[in-house]
Amino acid sequence: MAVKPRPAGRIQEADAFEPLPTYMELAMAAAAAHDAPPSAPRPRLPGLSIVEKLVAVAIVCLAFYGMALIGCGLFLKAEAKRTGLITQRTMSAQLQYADFDIRVPPRVID
Predict the structure, then answer these.
(1) How far does CA 41 lie from the centroid of its chain?
(2) DSSP readout, 66-99?
(3) Rg (CA), the chain
(4) Residue 66 backbone phi and psi in degrees, to 5
(5) Angstrom distance (rounded) from CA 67 to CA 62
(6) Residues 51-58, mean pLDDT to the nearest whole number
(7) Quick check: 36 pLDDT over 60?
(8) I need a surface site. Which of 11, 47, 74, 85 has the fewest CB within 10 A?
(9) Nearest to 45 by CA among 55, 31, 33
(10) Dihedrals φ, ψ of 83, to 5°?
(11) Which tens digit of pLDDT belongs to each residue from 18-28?
């Protein structure tokens, strides 16, 4: 007996028109997904022991402290340069208006 060949399009059309899930089915699926137990928290840096983690944290802290010291040093250098420029301008202005006449005796402060 020969089997009649079915067109492939009919099978795909039948699969395409399946009934959609009802609101109740969707709500039950959402509730089931929501009621799932929470997964255990992943350990941070899983391949390291506690001592190795503490050493890594100490290294990071020292790096931040070093950057803070470098920042303070650069700030102090900038302040010294600014103060030096202000002092240099003040001294040059005082020397410019100074009276270097040697005929006037110097004042003696008692």
Answers:
(1) 23
(2) HHHHHHHHHHHHHHHHHHHHHHHHHHHHHHHS--
(3) 43
(4) -65, -40
(5) 9
(6) 94
(7) yes
(8) 47
(9) 55
(10) -65, -40
(11) 777 888 888 88
